[in-house]
C-alpha cells in the first residue's frame, strides 16, 4: 500500500496539503477585483490565483449566474447529449467560435476534461503525438489515454521537434503544446511550430497530416488582447489544406468562471461531440456557470486590452523588474506566471533539499501576510515559489511582496 510512500513524502517535505479560504467580509460581489483572501482568520494578499483579470469576484458574473439560476435551476441534470444542455451553452459556443475566428466551438466541463477527452479522440492507433516535455498534466494524461505513439520533445526545442517529426514520415502527426507553460510562465514558440507544421504538410504532397493542438489555459484572456496565444502570434486558423489548429482554452482562469472550450473546424467539433468521452459521459455544466462565462467573455471583449488586461501587464512588469533587481531567478517567464527562486539556490533538477528552502521562503512570506505557495517535485523538477500577478493587485501589494522578499535574502 501507499503508507510508506506517504511517510516519505512527509520526510522529503513534499507532502501537499489543502488550505481553505473563508469568504471575504460581505462575501460575493464585495470581493470584486480583490487580491485579498482570508485563511485561518487572517487576511493575506494572494499571489497564487489564476484569476488574472480579477473577474472571479466581479458583480457582472455573479448577477448573470443568479439570473440563470432563477431561470434554469441549479444542476444540469444530464450530459448535453441526454438533454442536459441549455440555450446558454449553445450561445457560449457560438460566441466563443466568433471570438476565436474558428468555425465552431464546444464547451467541456474543465480544461483537464477537455484534454483527456479530445487528445485520445483526435489521435489513435498508427498516429504519432509529439508533446513538449513541460506540458501540463492534462495533455500528458490525454496522451496516456490515446493509442497513438507518444514522442516527447525537449522544452521549446524546435530543432529537436523537427528531427523527431522527420523520423515519422507518412504518419498522421499531432503536436500538442501548452501556449503558456503553467509553472514556468514562458510561451511556446507558436510561430515556429506552425511553420514546422506547414513545411511538413508541403512535403507530404499536400496532404495536411500535421495537426496542432494548443492548451491555451493561461493564454485566454491574457495574451493577444484577451483573444489568446494564436492572436498574440498573429496566426489565423485557416481551412484545409492548411494545418488544422485545435485550441483548448479555459473559462476557469482569466475569465473567472469555470469550464473550458475547444475551438476548431466544424468537422473536428462534430467528431468531438461524437467521440469525446468527457463530453459524452459527464453531466453538463450548470446554466449559471455558463451564464457567468458569457458575462466574462463580454467583459474581455469590451476591454480590448485597454482596461483590466493593460493593468495586468503593467502589474506584471512592476513585479518582474522588481524581482530581477533583487537578484531573484525568474527562469524564462514572459507572462503573469513568474517563478521565484532565491539567488543562492542552484538550478539542479530534482534537488530535493531545495524544497525545504522554498517552503521556508513561502512560510516567511505567509508571516508577512503574503500567500505564495511553494511548488515542488513532482509538479516541477526545480522547486520554486510560483507567483501569479493579476489586475486585482495594487502597486502597494506588489511592493509589499518585493520588500518581504528583500528581507529574506541571505536568511534562508
Ligand atoms: C495549462 C493548463 N491546462 C489545463 C488546465 C486545467 O484546467 P481546469 O482547471 O479548467 O481543469 C490547467 C489548470 O491548472 C492548466 O494550467
Could you give a short description of this structure?
With 412 residues, the chain is of the alpha/beta class. The chain has helices spanning 3-11, 59-72, 87-100, 111-122, 137-145, 158-166, 190-203, 229-232, 266-275, 277-280, 287-303, 308-326, 352-367, 395-408, and strands spanning 36-39, 42-46, 104-108, 128-132, 149-153, 173-178, 210-215, 245-250, 260-264, 337-340, 370-371, 374-375, 384-388. The chain folds into two domains: 3-58 and 305-408, Aspartate Aminotransferase, domain 1 (Alpha-Beta Complex), CATH 3.90.1150.10; 61-303, Aspartate Aminotransferase, domain 2 (3-Layer(aba) Sandwich), CATH 3.40.640.
3D structure, described in words:
This protein is of the alpha/beta class and 412 residues long. The protein has 2 domains: 3-58 and 305-408, Aspartate Aminotransferase, domain 1 (Alpha-Beta Complex); 61-303, Type I PLP-dependent aspartate aminotransferase-like (Major domain) (Aspartate Aminotransferase, domain 2, 3-Layer(aba) Sandwich). 40% of the residues lie in helices and 15% in strands. It is built from 14 helices and 13 strands. The strands form 3 sheets. Strands 3-9-8-7-6-4-5 form a 7-stranded mixed sheet, with helices on both faces. Strands 1-2-11 form a 3-stranded mixed sheet. A 3-stranded antiparallel sheet has the order 10-13-12. Strand 12 and strand 13 form a beta hairpin. The radius of gyration is 22 Å and the shape is globular. It starts with a helix and ends with a helix. The mean pLDDT is 92. The structure holds pyridoxal-5'-phosphate. Pyridoxal-5'-phosphate is lined by residues 110-112, 136, 138, 178, 182, 215, 217-218, 250, 252, 260.
